[in-house]
Design brief:
The complex is a heterodimer of chains A (114) and B (114). With 114 residues, chain A is mostly beta strands. Chain A is built from no helices and twelve strands. In chain B, the strands form two sheets. In chain B, strands 2, 4, 5, 6, 9, 10 and 11 form a seven-stranded mixed sheet that branches. A four-stranded antiparallel sheet of chain B has the order 1-3-8-7, with no helix packed on it. The chains are: A mainly beta (114), B mainly beta (114).
Chain lengths: 114, 114
């Protein structure tokens, strides 16, 4: 069975500081990996995805994530936090060949301190 | 362009009532997904359609939950005899090609059962 673990349900960073949100998955075969962001009262918006090409994936709003097979991780980073980055972030996996079913982590709430 | 839309955005139901939640996917998208997101949790998969065919309904929590997509576009999630534990945000997502692994989410319907 697939599972996704997001370490840290709440993360606080100062404006301009590095953002690091952690995601680990459990799967014998590397799945597709995604990061989504959710602003209050809005649907999830795709930040970036890893489907099998380069292991360092660049997304929107300056975010990027690196797939590390040996660590079964897909951590999300941004060099310099902006106030507008405050939101809920979800890591998700989709097993290959299963019809695109997603399994989400429990989310990390990012607070940006001015 | 038009994204995924859902209606109503908010629904309050008394315990025991039946509810119907609507999802309008992005035009031309083949795959459609329903998720349930409890407060403070990540979305959990409910069911998946490819065109009008319901290919996976393994996530539906009970036989009170029923989903349909009769013409391969609009979908309705119906919950019969609602219970308090059904209170959640119900998210709909669509995908152009289910094998690619990218879903576009609607804003959700927040259901409160009193």
């Amino acid at each position: 069975a697939q599972s996704v673990t997001q370490l840290g349900s709440h993360v606080s960073v100062s404006e301009g500081a590095l953002v690091l949100l952690r995601c680990n998955y459990s799967s014998s075969v590397p799945p597709y990996l995604f990061w989504y962001v959710q602003y209050p009262n809005q649907g999830l918006q795709l930040l970036l995805k890893y489907t099998s090409a380069a292991t360092l994936v660049k997304g929107i709003n300056g975010f990027e994530a690196e797939f590390k097979k040996s660590e079964t991780s897909f951590h999300l980073t941004k060099p310099s936090a902006h106030m507008s980055d405050a939101a809920e972030y979800f890591c998700a996996v989709s097993p290959r060949g299963t019809g695109n079913q997603f399994y989400f982590g429990t989310g990390t709430s990012l607070t940006v301190i001015p | 362009g038009a994204g995924v839309s859902q209606s109503p955005r908010y629904k309050v139901a008394k315990r025991g009532q039946d509810v119907a939640l609507r999802c309008d996917p992005i035009s031309g998208h083949v795959s459609l997904f329903w998720y349930q997101q409890a407060l403070g949790q990540g979305p959990e998969f409910l069911t998946y359609f490819q065109n009008e065919a319901q290919l996976d309904k393994s996530g539906l929590p009970s036989d009170r939950f029923f989903a349909e997509r009769p013409e391969g576009s609009v979908s309705t999630l119906k919950i019969q005899r609602t219970q308090q534990e059904d209170s959640a945000v119900y998210l709909c997502a669509s995908s152009l090609d289910g094998r690619v692994g990218e879903q576009y989410f609607g804003p959700g319907t927040r259901l409160t059962v009193t």
